[in-house]
Backbone:
């Protein structure tokens, strides 16, 4: 991998490129969830909010609190909707007053409202999260990050398991979160990158080829490889 | 269009014949089970009574009941569980959740496979050497249970590890990505979702251990005792050994009695298996993915 990428705060940066080019691997370096796999070695510098994420002083738990992640397949935990939302906070601040009684209800409500899921589920918050539709599950997976107030949200092809209608809904939601959170969106769907990102970075075979404003990258790509990819000549 | 040719007909005939062969072979499987159970019930059922279950053997074990042996088996198995279950579950959690794929892990896995393959009589000799003699437990319930426990260990480890692995990786990743530690993930997500499988494995272990004879024969099970054990350093009678003794060592035992003992033993084993199946059904029904 040979990558140099500067992600700006508060906007959506999409990562595109053909399968196997290293988009997801790069993304997984940021919250260091890669390193559990025994065969992974990470070299170079990853800075989050100006701090080296690989500094030995860094506590993984604190890093991941700041850097939330949404996965390709919605992966709500097999507990209730409500417990899914409160899970992160219970883990990080078990004694927080936000977790007691009606304060917890407020946390749940505001997180679910922010992802536009509240009206659909408010009457059965105790139902198993895994019984929701995929679209709702993915919303829930985004919602459960919010009580931890992350600054950066990593999204690894968050719509690839969803149908076009659900994809549109999630894209709108991502767009709505723009500004409050910095978002890195990995996608192999070029149209999605075009619709739902401010800046776009194109990767190929582990290399960063081009990183510019989304509109510019798609209209006037500088690199020939980028041009060929977005025209669909390979990938 | 699409009509069968002569070759197709021939192929279909051959395929039917093979299917029939496999079906017959499969049905043959049921035969030994049915015969064993039928024989045991036929000969053994008449001797089963409350006094058979709850009385001491009398007149050189040709009369009376099997109470000390029944109780002894329960002691041996429970104590074996006390040793093997915590150790086995802990090892399985380590191997499944913490261990990286390196030479040490591979060596441990190899050791487990080999331990599972050790014949029970070899376990018995090991038990004599290690627990009876080296640790000076003597021939005792303690030594016999430890031997049984070591024998059961690979079963517990493998079945627990399999149930842990059955929890989808996505749940773990979801937890880690939220900043949960490895232990928090295990405690909150992995264990609650694998407990049914772990319990099933433990119960199956009970049923296997209950029937073992060789490992306890030299380490703590007695031919005959006129009293119940008072501590784990005493010897005890056990159903499996009692069955062996009655069938081969004692003259003049009424024909039905060994069958009765065998019936009790197999009833314990089968009810344990039934319990584990029931468990699995209940807990699987509750599973939420």
Residues:
């Amino acid at each position: 991998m040979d990558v140099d990428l500067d992600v700006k705060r508060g906007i959506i940066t999409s990562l595109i490129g053909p399968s196997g080019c290293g988009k997801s691997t790069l993304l997984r370096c940021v919250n260091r969830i890669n390193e559990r796999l025994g065969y992974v070695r990470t070299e170079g510098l990853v800075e989050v909010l100006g701090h080296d994420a690989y500094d030995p002083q860094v506590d993984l738990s604190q890093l991941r609190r700041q850097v939330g992640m949404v996965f390709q397949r919605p992966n709500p935990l097999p507990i209730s909707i409500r417990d899914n939302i409160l899970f992160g906070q219970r883990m990080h601040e078990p004694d927080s007053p936000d977790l007691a009684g009606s304060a917890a209800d407020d946390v749940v409500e505001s997180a679910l409202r922010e992802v536009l899921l509240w009206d659909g589920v408010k009457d059965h918050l105790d139902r198993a999260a895994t019984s929701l539709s995929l679209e709702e599950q993915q919303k829930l997976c985004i919602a459960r990050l919010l009580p931890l107030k992350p600054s950066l949200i990593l999204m690894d092809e968050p719509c690839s398991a969803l149908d076009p209608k659900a994809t549109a809904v999630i894209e709108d939601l991502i767009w709505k979160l723009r500004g409050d959170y910095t978002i890195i969106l990995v996608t192999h769907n070029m149209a999605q990158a075009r619709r739902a990102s401010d800046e776009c970075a194109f990767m190929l075979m582990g290399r960063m080829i081009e990183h510019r404003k989304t509109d510019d990258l798609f209209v006037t790509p500088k690199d020939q490889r980028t041009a060929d990819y977005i025209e669909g000549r390979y990938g | 269009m699409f009509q069968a040719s002569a070759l197709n007909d021939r192929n279909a005939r051959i395929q039917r014949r093979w299917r029939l062969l496999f079906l017959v072979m499969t049905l043959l499987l049921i035969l030994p089970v049915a015969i064993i159970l039928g024989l045991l019930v036929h000969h053994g059922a008449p001797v089963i009574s409350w006094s058979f279950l709850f009385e001491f053997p009398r007149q050189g074990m040709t009369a009376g009941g099997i109470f000390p042996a029944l109780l002894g088996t329960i002691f041996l198995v429970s104590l074996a569980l006390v040793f093997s279950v915590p150790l086995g579950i802990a090892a399985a959690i380590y191997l499944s959740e913490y261990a990286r794929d390196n030479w040490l892990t591979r060596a441990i896995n190899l050791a487990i496979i080999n331990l599972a393959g050790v014949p029970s009589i070899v376990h018995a000799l090991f038990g004599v050497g290690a627990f009876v003699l080296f640790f000076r437990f003597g021939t005792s319930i303690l030594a016999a249970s430890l031997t049984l426990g070591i024998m059961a260990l690979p079963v517990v480890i493998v079945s627990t590890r399999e149930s842990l692995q059955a929890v989808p990786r996505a749940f773990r990743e979801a937890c880690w990505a939220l900043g949960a530690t490895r232990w928090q993930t295990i405690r909150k997500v992995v264990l609650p979702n694998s407990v049914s499988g772990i319990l099933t494995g433990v119960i199956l272990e009970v049923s296997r251990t209950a029937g073992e004879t060789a490992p306890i024969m030299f380490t703590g099970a007695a031919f005959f005792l006129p009293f119940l054990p008072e501590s784990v350093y005493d010897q005890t009678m056990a159903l499996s050994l009692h069955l062996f003794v009655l069938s081969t060592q004692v003259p003049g035992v009424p024909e039905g009695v060994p069958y009765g003992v065998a019936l009790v033993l197999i009833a314990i084993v089968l009810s344990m298996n039934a319990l584990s199946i029931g468990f699995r059904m209940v807990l699987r029904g509750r599973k939420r993915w």
Notes: The mean pLDDT of chain A is 90. The longest strand of chain A covers residues 207-213. Chain A has ten helices and eight strands.
